[in-house]
Specification:
homodimer; 298 residues; alpha/beta; TIM Barrel; 8-stranded parallel beta barrel; two-stranded antiparallel ribbon; 47% helix; globular
């Protein structure tokens, strides 16, 4: 068995001294023309855009999070580009959390587990986001494969979108559904806990709800958090690390994703050369990494 | 705007006089060697297996339901084969419900909606299964695209797997979560209701829980049901149509999926020629279609 995913992740975050996770969200209307004609050759443009982000991000962030749905809108070419991007990021020393939000039962869940965490023809991602609505048996194949191969599973618990409360906030005996989900995942958290004391059963914990991140930390003391919603989605760095706890170097306990803020800053959108584009996203990533570093040093 | 999906679906089911939906679940260890070497050329084998099922299923069932996760385990080649299979099924006159169980927010949800319901490079499916856990805003892009293009959205409400109850059964003020989900979907059901009175906002309603299918019908009187769990998963034909109501030709109100029972019957697994294989699945589909026809004639 490889080193536990949680140990690899927390070590990489400590080495970078920032919990920044770089999200790759290929918006058709935002990828600069510098990368080529997206309509004519989506696979090449998506891959060039993604790998160019990795070339800069590997200096600033321990983790890359490709958003699979935005690749899939380009069909099988987009799907293939996402897989090749994961390969490239791993070879550049980054940890890959594939944001696929899969969730199904039995044999189909096994199929998705192999597709995302498994070796080629799978994505061979280090971790994948999974939706728990269908029940804990939907998680089992992901957890089994993760345990066996030193990988992780990030379960949607409390998301950061405007409608997150519709079903997640329904009250169950005085606590919201998301809190019950968190509590019921205790055995899975234990199963993926590494020598660091952290677990590779990650919880997606929306940064737009910092109070809830603290509550979630009580319910899942060992789960690493994947925190979306920082930057463009409105949450501050302090909000984003609200669920973190004191570690050897400051606050720790997961990664904080930024996508639009660091990959589509205004200066990058206006860049006329690749070198200007690189400088623009380098500056945005430096700023985000430092802001999160400062928030963790409090 | 094209004809409403619900109207197309109910008309096709009435024409076939059976609610049978043919599931295509490509299990690596079950596809007969007759179709070629799956490891050597997954795309060709998957496509031949799927289209061969369509050639027979088009006679017996109005609807084809490819299980995307089992295609994705073969990487981008599997993903491409699933898309081409959808194209083939539509050209053979079948309605395609793509079982993708996607669920994400905002722009990513838009990406998944285009990927599944959108025209090439999308799957151009007639309907797609969607997971509601992240909230109603995750459904909005699917519903908008469905409404605009005469398509449908099948929302996971009450699934049929052993762990379905873990989160779906949590009690919210005297009713389970799945019932609250059903009730909260009323505006979306109304939005996709066609001239037939049925809505293309389908509800996934597990056949292994017939009592609950009746309760779900009360909560969602106009939603067409996508019923999994019939056949190999253990539910009888009578259980499978428990949520159906009286229509012009007998009970109606959705489709009932069978995958393993009609695509991997013992005789098909033992077939030595394509002609024997076709005869075996033709017999299994004839039996399933008749059994469901009889259950609807009660």
């Amino acid at each position: 068995m490889s080193a536990a995913f949680a140990d690899r992740l927390i070590e990489a975050v400590r080495a970078k001294a920032t919990p920044l996770c770089a999200g790759v969200d290929p918006f058709a209307d935002k990828i600069p023309a510098l990368f080529g004609d997206l309509r004519a050759d989506p696979a090449a443009v998506l891959l060039k855009f993604g790998t160019s982000i990795v070339d800069v991000a590997a200096k600033h962030a321990a983790v890359l999070k490709p958003q699979l749905g935005l690749f899939e809108q380009f069909g099988e070419m987009g799907y293939a580009a996402a897989r090749m991007l994961c390969e490239y990021a791993v070879s550049a020393g980054m940890i890959v959390i594939l944001d696929a939000k899969r969730g199904d039962i039995g044999t189909t869940a096994e199929g998705y587990a192999r597709a995302t965490l498994g070796a080629k023809p799978g994505f061979n991602a280090d971790c994948v986001t999974v939706n728990p609505y269908m029940g804990k048996d939907t998680l089992a194949p992901f957890i089994a494969l993760a345990k066996q191969s030193g990988k992780g599973v990030a379960v949607l618990v409390r998301t950061s979108n405007p409608g997150a409360g519709d079903f997640q906030d329904l009250q169950v005996g005085g606590a919201p559904v998301w809190r019950r989900v968190a509590e019921m995942l205790a055995p899975e958290v234990a199963e993926l806990t590494g020598a660091s004391g952290w677990s590779g059963l990650m919880a997606v914990a929306g940064a737009t709800y910092p109070e809830e991140a603290r509550t979630l930390r009580e319910a899942m003391p060992r789960a690493l958090f994947l925190v979306p919603g920082y930057g463009a989605q409105g949450a501050s760095a302090a909000d984003a690390v609200a669920g973190f706890i004191a570690g050897p170097q400051g606050l720790e306990g997961g990664v904080v994703n930024s996508s639009r803020g660091i990959t589509y800053p205004q200066a990058a959108q206006e860049a006329r050369t690749m070198s200007d584009w690189r400088a623009a996203i380098d500056a945005a990533m430096t700023a985000a990494a430092s802001e999160l570093r400062a928030a963790c040093a409090r």
